[in-house]
Amino acid sequence: MTDGTTAILDALHHQASGYLTLAELQQRAGLSASRVADGLAELQQRGYQIEVNPHFGCRLVETPDQLTADGIRALLAARVIGREIQVFAETTSTNDVVARLARTATPEGITVFAEAQTAGRGRRGRVWHSPRGTGLWFSVLLRPPWPLEAHTRLTIAAGSAVARTIRQCTQLDARVKWPNDVTVQGRKVAGVLTEAGPGYAILGIGVNVNTTAAAFPAELREQATSLRLASGRGQDRVELAARLLAALDAEYARAQADFDAVAAAWAERCDTLGQQLVVTMGTRRVEGLAHALDGDGALLLRKDNGQIERICGGDIVVERT
Ligand code: BT5
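YS: structure for the whole thing
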């Protein structure tokens, strides 16, 4: 997309309701009449439905269900997360793409989306299903100022931001489950995978947006859902992506200033605290009551004998039934 089309999209998006006259559009986009006409034609060719009315002006009716870096950027003020955006048609895992960037001098905030992942992954080598064009599969390069063992803070901050954005965009009651699940109606709708190395962390997020039941493999149909399945309504992925990045950016800033505030907001919508859990830590098995998060985002488990056990993101957690 050219700078001209980005400026036009920007202006159209900011006109929340009603029409923008062609003169206003030229002025806001800083373009001549002929460049506005070219830009509108290019956008229409790309699938943007723009109504152009000789009397009233123009209005953005629908954006195409295709992720583009410019489409997302047009809705996002420049910040840390989403400072630079790349969209791939397909990749192995967006976490792999960002891992390569992490080892260069790339500053934090760059965000990589893919319409499809051929090797999307969860924790401990589990598979993350990423059917083409149905969800948001993306990773952010971060360089947090805290030590490696505190990186669960990112998982907590991200889960909380994703759940809040889903609540705001869909009115669904999205909840979090320690360490990295976001659920709606008791089913997983999003997951977070934080991977870290020296001087960097990669925040990988998968959100099922417009996925239909048929697109989930049979073994997931009972436990997974999408925003469309749960709300009965499809979502504009470009707009959702922009809102997610803005929410993640704010929560990342808050995690650096005051992680306790992040943890408190997370705890309000959490299904883990107060539960009786069984946790496998290597060869050890621990049972207890999920009691609180500590300052690093780890889960504190109170055992029957009163001792507190600290559980990290990599441990296996099962609810005791
Ligand atoms: C997660 O792992 O939930 C982390 C998922 C992170 C995915 C993003 S997409 C962008 C970035 N690039 C990547 O390669 N990954 C990140 P975990 O808690 O281990 O959960 C994995 C389990 O969730 C699987 O074993 C399945 O049971 C289930 N699952 C797989 N795909 C799913 C989906 N699309 N929706 C809901 N559940 C799914």
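YS: worth flagging: The mean pLDDT is 92.
IM: good catch. Also The first helix runs from residue 3 to 14.
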